[in-house]
Amino acid sequence: MATILCYGDSLTWGSIPNGGRYPKHLRWPTILNELLGKHHQVINFGLPGRTTIWNDPFLEGRNGLSYLQAALETFGPVDIVILMLGTNDLKRHFNVGAYEAAKGVEKLIEKSRMPNSHDFPNPTLVVIAPPNILSPTGAMAESFAGAIEKSQHFHQHYQDMAVHNKCIFLNAAGILQPSEVDGVHLDAQANEALAHALHDLIKTKV
């Protein structure tokens, strides 16, 4: 049985555009588990607002680097880690772009490969470049001011970083886009598409 840890933000957690959370069966980690089969365990460790390495002054406990080691030990040994973070890095108050987000994911990769006291083997790593941000609406419009253009560079920087670090790479923008309802979060169809794309990538690894 393979243990697969999905480490992400609200796109992994299952945020419904403009509020709420999808029931479990509509979230992409659950769909991925169904596709892989019940003898594997896919863990949804998404958290709304999580960044790669940044401390958010408005949301507590969102620094992804701070919690990854605990997650790897809690659920370990982990066979595959799927990393999809960076969307929240583009919030205006962080003042960084897709390049810095990719460097943040690189720190997560380094953390996941550090020796541990349990002698767990290093997991296989899957890096997902987040989807391009569309026109954010409502409360997110101010928070993600300037993020639309920045997000278009996710693919390039994440792919370069993933190849350099010998990770499996998936460009989410190549298979889906956020819901037009809020421009950031995924609709049910996008959750389905992401799960199927990941299944095709990792089915030979489990």
Which SSEs are present, and which pair or pack?
Layout: E1 3-8, H1 10-13, H2 28-36, E2 41-46, H3 64-75, E3 80-84, H4 98-112, E4 124-129, H5 140-143, H6 147-151, H7 154-164, E5 168-171, H8 188-202
Parallel strand pairs: 1-2, 1-3, 3-4, 4-5
Q: Could you explain how this protein is built, in words?
A:
- With about 210 residues, the chain is of the alpha/beta class.
- The chain has one domain: Rossmann fold (3-Layer(aba) Sandwich), CATH 3.40.50.1110.
- The chain is built from eight helices and five strands, in the order βααβαβαβαααβα.
- It has a five-stranded parallel beta sheet with strand order 2-1-3-4-5, sandwiched between helices.
- Strand 3, helix 4 and strand 4 form a beta-alpha-beta unit.
- It is globular, with a radius of gyration of 16 Å.
Helix-strand pattern: EHHEHEHEHHHEH
Strand order of the largest sheet: 2-1-3-4-5
CATH architecture: 3-Layer(aba) Sandwich
Q: Find the structural class using helix and strand composition.
A: alpha/beta
Average residue-wise pLDDT: 97
How much is the radius of gyration in Å? 16 Å
Distance between the termini: 8 Å
Tally of individual domains: 1
Low-confidence stretches: none
Output the CATH homologous superfamily.
SGNH hydrolase
Describe the main β-sheet briefly: 5 strands, parallel
Helix fraction by DSSP (H/I, runs of at least 4): 25-40%
Strand percent estimate: 5-15%
InterPro entries: Ester_Hydrolysis_Enzymes, SGNH_hydro, SGNH_hydro_sf
Organism: Marinomonas pontica
Domain SGNH hydrolase-type esterase: 6-191
Protein name: Arylesterase
